[in-house]
Amino acid sequence: MATPLGNLRDITLRALDVLRSVDVVAAEDTRLTRRLLSHYQIHTRMIALHEHNESAAAGAVADRLARGEAVAYVTDAGTPGISDPGVVLVRRIREAGWPVVPVPGPSALTAALSAAGVDAAQFVFYGFAPAKASARQKTFAAAAQFPYAAVFYEAPHRLLETLADMATAFGPTREITIARELTKMFESWHRCALGDAAAWVAQDPARSKGELVLIVSGVAQRADAQAEAHAQRTLALLLAELPLSRAVALAAQITGASRNALYQYALELKPAS
Questions:
Q1: How far apart are CA 154 and CA 242, in angstroms?
Q2: Predicted TM-score of the model (pTM)
Q3: 146: exposed, middle or buried (Cβ count in 10 Å: 0-12, 13-18, 19+)
Q4: Average pLDDT in the 32-55 region?
Q5: In this structure, are residues 219 and 147 in contact, taking their beta carbons and an 8 Å threshold?
């Protein structure tokens, strides 16, 4: 079951109904979940189920289901199984023949992509990058070859190292969006070239605090932007010497860009010329 990233109002009515109706809530951190339940005056019993006890706790959940109890599972925030515990539990319960019903809601991944302003028709989600530098660098080198956005979670204490490794692997001109503390009081967004990202973070210690989502643009997106800019520069130079229709035709022939797109751009330039 998905729970709020920070803002306690980001909970669905269905999730509240389920939390009230089940016999037990299995929680990654019962202290954090108690805050959510108390806010909505829910008094359902809780048990702990986290990465260190997931296998054993999953067996206990299966036993409860066998006794006819209903169990809900929540992680600290967001959606279980997405860079959070839950996968072992789901597999164990399904293998035992019990249904697993998702209760969708908040996710840092989708929240970040929805407001980043990047082309996310296709993307690769890596979760947290490896903690070891060598493994992290290999991960980034592989991700840099994809033609679509790469999304990472990152911890504050590794942010500067991660940004430096990203700039090396993806190149300093690739665009990155840094989304921090989503849905919380100090939520912030910043988009810049990867080569400038570490310096921007270092300017203010607050910029490396809290939960972070990093979105690096795909290689094809960057190439497309460069090609478009080249075509527009070519058209602008030709317009200074030739009639509009001739300049558009030559620019399309030289750059391979769409004649219709160049024509529209020429109409935008003309009043200023």
A1: 52
A2: 0.78
A3: middle
A4: 97
A5: yes
